[in-house]
Amino acid sequence: MTLPRYRLCRGLLFVFEGVDGAGKTTQVRLLAERLQAAGYDVLCLQEPTAGPWGQKLRHLAQHGREAIAPATELEWFLQDRREDVEHNIQPALARGQIVVLDRYYFATKPLRRPQICYFSCTCRRRRAYSASDNAVHSVTSSA
Predict the structure, then answer these.
(1) Which of 114, 108, 61, 43 is nearest to 82 (CA)?
(2) Are residues 142 and 24 in contact, defined by beta-carbon separation less than 8 angstroms?
(3) How open is the CA angle 100-40-4, to the nearest 5 degrees?
(4) CA-closest candidate to residue 119, choices 85, 73, 80
(5) Per the confidence metrics, is the pTM higher than 0.85?
(6) Separation CA 13–CA 35 (nearest Å)
(7) Which of 8, 16, 26, 44 is the most buried (most CB within 10 A)?
(8) pLDDT tens, 105-126?
């Protein structure tokens, strides 16, 4: 039996936020499986991404941040998000897909070094790379 495929007029963006080990990845998988079983087209993503900027950020997380300035680290996050929004998130939403993210916009500040908070342009620039405030449904996962 083939399930009917549902296409939304407008895509939806669900975000799971929480500390490491809280179960975000598990919840993303469970939600995606349930939506797909119901016939919806789902795209799962995570931050940092698997792209070049995201790989730089993952390297920092594994090997230490001492060699990089906070402003540079923030710039890498913004570039990673910009590419993800432009190449993955916005096109998927435009196609009527449901996008489920493991971390996103809300995680930039708490997961980064405190020094990043001192840059006055942070909020404006982060919001510039947000897919859409109306599209975000944030689900907080706690340990």
Answers:
(1) 108
(2) no
(3) 170
(4) 73
(5) no
(6) 13
(7) 16
(8) 666 554 455 444 444 344 444 5
Cα–Cα separations (whole angstroms), residue 82 to 13, 87, 88, 90, 134: 16, 8, 10, 10, 18
Q: What is the pLDDT of residues 11-54, one digit of tens each?
A: 899 988 877 788 889 999 999 999 999 999 999 999 888 999 98
Three-state SS for 6? strand
Closest CA to 116 of 125, 45, 81: 125
Cis preceding-peptide flag for 48 (omega within 30 of 0):
yes
Which residue ranges make up each domain of the chain?
12-140
Q: Say how far apart CA 36 and CA 85 lie, in whole Å.
A: 22
User: How many CB atoms lie under 10 A from the CB of residue 61?
Assistant: 12
Which class does domain 12-140 fall in? alpha beta
Distance of CA 69 to the CA centre of its chain: 23
Strand extents, DSSP E, 18-135: 42-46, 98-102
CB atoms < 10 A from the CB of 85, how many?
19
Length of the chain: 143
